Amino acid sequence: MSIKMIFSELKEKYPLLVDTANYLEQNSFFFRTTLTKIKGSGLDYELAEKLCSDCLNHVKQNRDGYFKCVHTLIDFSLEFLKLQMHLEKTGRYTYSTFKEIEENIYSNPNRKLKGPWYTWALYFSQIFWVSHWNVFRFFLSEFAKNNKEHGEVLEVPTGTGIYIAQFLANNPSWQGTGVDLGNTAIEFTKNVLAWNKIPSHRIALYKEDIYKFETDKRFDRIMCGEFLEHVEDPLGVLIKLHKLLKPDGKLFLTVAVYAEMIDHIYLYKSADEVRGHVKEAGFIPEKELVQAIFENKSPEDRDTPINYCAILKKI
Questions:
Q1: Binning pLDDT at 50, 70 and 90, where does residue 5 land?
Q2: Superfamily of domain 130-314
């Protein structure tokens, strides 16, 4: 079944979303089944249309430029499938240190999927990858809403900026802090905050290594999305976040388990390995969403790609 048939009734109300879905399906086999699942997963069409429209407005209504941004998600998805085959053959990620990533990926002039192009892929994955949309929906319903009137929120790393922008939009009297080591992520986050009409006085952004980041603030809420697999010492990150969180605060954590992307270096082999680090750092899960990426696998299996997501509190 084509995506045009699946989404045809949405064309009048959500035209850019439908055009984007059609483009993905027409240009990659990966999305011919994925998009069917996306529609059945309770996608927020209003939010999805807005995310697409924000990108189109950013490129000044240039549709060729827009679909160039969208196409990064196809490159990103195909690279994941290729790298996952490598992982399943060798039992290890391609790189295991940040130095290797810096030398072979971030400093590679011939790599197309880096900098803002990599960030655009992550941006569109929030609505066009089933597992990422499920996590985003879980975040919006269980973490970003029904909070006290005033508070302090931290995101490490900011990545695309979508999460902290949505949190601040849903909590208009809260103040935000974002930390990321990459210039691209900081600039991308600034754009996303502006698209969501979050004034600059409500958030402070720092280009900083989280291990070195120091502040007198303690936070009511912290978000840390798919970061632990990018560092050599994920337990150290969790311990640092525990220190930054207020005694009654909560941490929203997501982790890619046994899922290879080119800049993943710490290999978690099961959800229980993540839970072990969570407990050792002084946290306990309040709620979890654990998804197997492939349908024929269980989220509690070892050596299968999993998206681990949890709302944590201090023990």
A1: low
A2: Vaccinia Virus protein VP39 (3.40.50.150)
